[in-house]
């Protein structure tokens, strides 16, 4: 019999709630109280997340965010700033000691990204892992990923772009050199793609989630069983949201 | 004085370093290391920043010190390394 993991479909939530839920699952899983968990979610309102090591004010135009109703949050994972709008976000939480997870961090990025790559094949899309943390279609980025390991537990989350609006993204993000901003925007337009662009038609969030579910099941030889957050996870998530992810102290800490 | 650098580590990530140092003797008073890299555990970066206070901005000494901290605290960097950090700090010296 195949190993059973938990699948969570938590819908569209705020940036603060989304990051709090990932962290809550990490904590409760590290205590052995819930199985390895794959989660699919979206962001409402749209939001920018920045990597743990980034400076909020170096990366984000806070006035523009306010004007466009875009939230912002610092992740517990490293990596870069991401504009979460039309995309599917996944997370996976699993013990570092699980045989499916390579001890080597970079290799484990690759292993988890393989589940996404496998999932995309079910949408008729051929993609490749591009270390450190990207997935490419026809040489262009369609997915970015970030991993942390705490309490001997791996949390990796990342995005699959359904559609991309580079102009809006750049109105929200700061660039190191304003003089070359136009060139930078053109560069990013060349280097980033989306499912909409690749497929030549819009695709529903649910369709992508289904394909990725199968991708995870095939890559890890497991069965994903639809579940819900436990009471403890919900309580912990509410606490993390209030005391960490929605606070100035956390978001402006660097 | 305070100075900043932006350095793209070869085959790696973008490192943004801000250093406050004594202009007379080039000793670091305070340092902030930011960027889109990865470090395990993440808290190691704050430790690195604390440990680099009162260190001379000199390439060999910095590299040695950073390597020692990485090894002592078992830090794993992805997208940056001791050489990249050293280069980023050296670029802050006016």
Overview of the structural elements:
The complex is a heterodimer of chains A (254) and B (94). With 254 residues, chain A is α/β, with parallel strands linked by helices. Chain A has one domain: BirA Bifunctional Protein, domain 2. Chain A contains ten helices and eleven strands. Chain A is globular, with a radius of gyration of 17 Å. Chain A starts with a strand and ends with a helix. The mean pLDDT of chain A is 96. With 94 residues, chain B is an alpha+beta fold. Chain B has one domain: CO dehydrogenase flavoprotein, C-terminal domain (Enolase-like, domain 1, 2-Layer Sandwich). The radius of gyration of chain B is 12 Å and the shape is globular. Chain B starts with a strand and ends with a helix. The mean pLDDT of chain B is 96. Chain A binds chain B through residues 51-55, 58, 76-81, 105-106, 132-133, 146-150, 176, 254, and chain B through 6, 12-14, 16, 32-42, 45, 76, 78-79.
What number of structural domains do the residues of chain B give? Answer: 1
Low-confidence stretches of chain A: none
Q: Going across the biggest sheet of chain A, name each strand in turn.
A: 7-8-9-10-6-2-1-11
User: Which chains make the largest contact?
Assistant: A-B, 23 and 20 residues
CATH fold descriptor of chain A: BirA Bifunctional Protein, domain 2
Structural class of chain A: alpha/beta
Nutshell version of this structure?
The complex is a heterodimer of chains A (254) and B (94). With 254 residues, chain A is α/β, with parallel strands linked by helices.
List keywords for this structure.
heterodimer, A: 254 residues, alpha/beta, BirA Bifunctional Protein, domain 2, eight-stranded mixed sheet, three-stranded mixed sheet, 11 strands, 28% strand, B: 94 residues, alpha+beta, Enolase-like, domain 1, three-stranded antiparallel sheet, two-stranded antiparallel ribbon, 3 helices, 5 strands
């Amino acid at each position: 019999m195949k190993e059973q993991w938990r699948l969570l479909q938590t819908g569209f939530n705020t940036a603060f709630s989304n990051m709090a839920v990932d962290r809550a699952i990490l904590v409760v899983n590290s205590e052995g109280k819930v199985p390895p968990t794959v989660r699919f979610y979206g962001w409402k309102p749209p939001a920018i997340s920045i990597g743990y090591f980034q400076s909020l004010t170096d990366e984000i135009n806070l006035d523009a965010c306010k004007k466009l109703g875009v939230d912002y949050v610092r992740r517990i994972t490293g990596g870069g700033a991401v504009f979460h709008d039309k995309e599917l976000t996944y997370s996976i939480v699993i013990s570092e000691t699980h045989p499916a997870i390579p001890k080597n961090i970079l290799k484990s990025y690759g292993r988890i990204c393989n589940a996404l790559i496998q999932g995309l094949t079910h949408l008729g899309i051929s993609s490749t892992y591009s270390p450190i943390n990207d997935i490419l279609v026809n040489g262009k980025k369609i997915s970015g990923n970030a991993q942390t390991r705490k309490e001997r537990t791996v949390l990796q989350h990342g995005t699959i772009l359904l559609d991309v609006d580079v102009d809006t993204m750049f109105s929200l993000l700061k660039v190191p050199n304003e003089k070359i901003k136009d060139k930078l925007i053109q560069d990013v337009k060349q280097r980033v793609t989306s499912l909409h662009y690749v497929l030549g038609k819009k695709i529903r969030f649910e369709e992508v989630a289904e394909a990725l579910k199968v991708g995870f099941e095939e890559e890890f030889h497991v069965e994903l069983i639809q579940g819900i957050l436990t009471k403890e996870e919900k309580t912990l998530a509410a606490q993390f949201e209030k005391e960490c992810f929605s606070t100035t102290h956390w978001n402006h800490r660097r | 004085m305070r100075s900043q650098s932006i350095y793209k580590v070869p085959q790696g990530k973008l490192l943004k370093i801000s250093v406050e140092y004594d202009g007379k003797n080039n000793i670091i008073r305070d340092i902030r290391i930011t960027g889109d890299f990865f470090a395990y555990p993440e808290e190691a970066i704050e430790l690195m920043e604390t440990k680099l206070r009162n260190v001379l901005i000199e390439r060999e000494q910095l590299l040695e010190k950073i390597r020692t901290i990485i090894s002592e605290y078992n830090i794993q960097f992805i997208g940056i390394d001791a050489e990249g950090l050293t280069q980023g700090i050296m670029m802050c010296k006016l």
